[in-house]
Please model this.
Amino acid sequence: MKDNEKIFDLLEHADDNIIDDIAGYSKDSDRMKQKVFAASEKKFNSMDKDFDKNGETTVRGVEEYNRPIWYRTVCAAAAFALVAGGVGVFGLIKKSAGSSSSIVPAAEVTEPDETEDTDIAEMTEADEVNEQTFLSDEEMKALFDEYLPVYLEAEWFNAADRINENTEKISFSVYYTEKKDWYTDDSPVPDGMTEIDGIVYCPQDFYKLDDPRFSTLDDIRNYYGQYLKDPDTILGIGGDYSQYQPGDVVITDGYAPEIITYNGDIYVQRSLKTSMTPDDWADNIISEKSLYVEEDRFTWEKIVKINTEYWGETASAVDMSFVKDEAGNWKCDCGTMCEERYSPEKDYNSLKNLMIDSDYLPQDCPMNVNMILQKADEYVTDNYGADVVKNCDGWEYVSVLPDYYHVTDDFVNNGNWIRANYNTPDDALLGPVGVYLDENGTVFGLDWRE
Amino acid sequence: MTGSEYGSLVRKNPSSAHRALFDEYFNYVRTIVYNHLRSCGSVEDVEECISDIFASVYFGFSEKETSGELKGYIGTIAKRISIDRYRSLSVKAGKTVSIDNEEYLTLRSSEDVVAGSERSELQHILIDAVKALGEPDSTILMQKYYYNRNSKEIGKLLDMKPATVRMRSKRAAEKLRDILSKTGIAS
Model:
C-alpha cells in the first residue's frame, strides 16, 4: 500500500495538462463545497468592504451617505446565497434554540392622533374611519404570509428546480449593456458579443421550462398577476421569439428578457440551482412589523436570526411592499432581502426604517426609500425622459441642503431628505441630475446644472 | 464559461454569478490546490486556500481584461495562491522548500529541465495507467492513494459499500502495478 501511495506522489505539482485529468477524479460532498463557497463569499465581501473604505466611498458632509443603487440587488443576492445555500439546501445552519415571535405595532402613522377635549362621538367616528381605511397588523401579517411563497417563487422562477439542464436549450443574443457604460474607448466588444448602435448584445442560453402549471406566458402573467403588481418586471417576461433563429440578436430596447416562448414552448434563462422557501424564514423571528403604512400601501418586514457556521449569528430580513390596485386588491409591488451580522445590542424591533436602509438613514427617521426613489424616477421620466431614469447612479440621505434650484417650497422641511442622482449624456457639460425629495416623495429641489 | 458570460451574470446578480463560477470551476481549483498542498496542508488548509482563490477571482475580475475563456485566468490565480500557501505552510512546518523544487524556479538549469520533463512524462504514464483501469476502479484508486480517503469515505462518495471499495481497490492496485511494471515505474 505504501508503494502505491508513493507512486501517486508523482502527481504532486503536476503540469497543467495533467491537472485536467486529475480533476476528473475529484469528488467532494455538496456540504464541503457549500462550506467553501460560503467562506469565499465572506472573504469577498470583506475585501469589497475594505476596498470601499479605502478608495471608493465618498462622504460629503455630516450625515450624508452614498450608496450605490444596486446595493439592493447585491444585498438580496448575498442573503439568498447565505440563507438558501445554508439553510434551504444544505442544512449548514444550526438553528438556535428558542424562538420568539412578536408583532410590533404598526408605524405611528396608523395610530389615531391623540386629541384632547374631543367628545366620545367624534372619537368613535374617527376610530371607525381608521378601522375602515387602514389594515390591522394581523391583516397585514396575513397578507405577507400568504404572498411570501409566491414572491419567493417569482424572484427565483428560473431556479433550476424547474429546468432540466440536460434537455434542449436555445441561445439568443439579448441586451447586455450600453457600450459607453462598458468601454471608454473604441475597443471592439469581446468575441461572441455583438454591438449594434452602441448597444452590446450577449448570447444567453434559454432552457425549456419544466413546470406543468404554465403553457404560455399569459399563464405565468395571470397566475403571478394575482399577487404581484408587475409580474413582467419581477419575472423578466419577454415575448415570443419564434420569428428568430437560435443565435440571432434580438433587439429589446434596453431590456434583458429571462422568460420567452419559442415555437410554442416556454424557455427560461438558468439561475442559481437552489431553492428558497418560506420555511427558511419561519423560525427564530426577532422582529416582524409593518412600516410606512398608508391607506393604499404598506411594507411588512420580517427579521429572523440565523446561526451559520461561517458567518456566526446573522439577522436576515425579508420585506415586501404592498399596494392596493384599482379594484381594491392588494398586490406586492417589490420586495428585498438582506442580512447583517446579528448584534444583540441592536433593537431590531425599534428600527423606524427597513433593515436594509438602517445603515444609511438615522435610527429615528422613517423614510420609505423605495417609494421616494419611485417618485424620483417618475419626476425624472417626465422631465428628462425614460432613458435618463435607466442611469440612476444612487441615492444619499441629506440633512443639510446646498444651494439648489427650488422646484417648490411646499415640502416637509425637517432635515430628512433624499438626494437621487441620475447620469445624462450631457454630464460632461452640465453635470448629473440631482433630485431632492422629502419623506413624502415630493420633489422640491434640483442641483444646479452649469 | 467566458469572462463575458460571467460579466453578464455579475451585472444581473453578483452572488448568483459567483455561485455559477464556483460550481463550474470548483473541481478544477480544488485539484490545483490539493495538488500543491497534498503533502503539507490539512483539509482545512485546502478549503481555506480554495475560498481565498475564489474570493480573489470574484474581486479581481475585470471584464475588459478577461473576456474569453476563464479557465486559464482562474488556473493562474489558483496556482499562484497555492504556491504561496505551500511555501508558508512548509515554513511553518519547518520543512525546507528547495529552491530547485521544480516549479518554484523561474530559471531552471538544463538538468532541472530534464528532470522536470521526465517527471512530466511519468505523470502522463501514471495517469494513463489509472485511466486504463476503467471506472469505478480509477476513481477508487485516485481517491484512496492520491486523495488519501478511506474505504468508508470513498463508499459514501461513490454510493458503494466500504467492503466493496476495499475489495475493488485491492484488485485495482494489483492491476495498476502490473500495468506500471511494464513501463518500469513499479516493480
The CA atoms of residues 3 and 61 of chain B lie 8 Å apart. Chain B has two domains: 3-109, 119-183. The two ends of chain B are 43 Å apart (CA to CA).
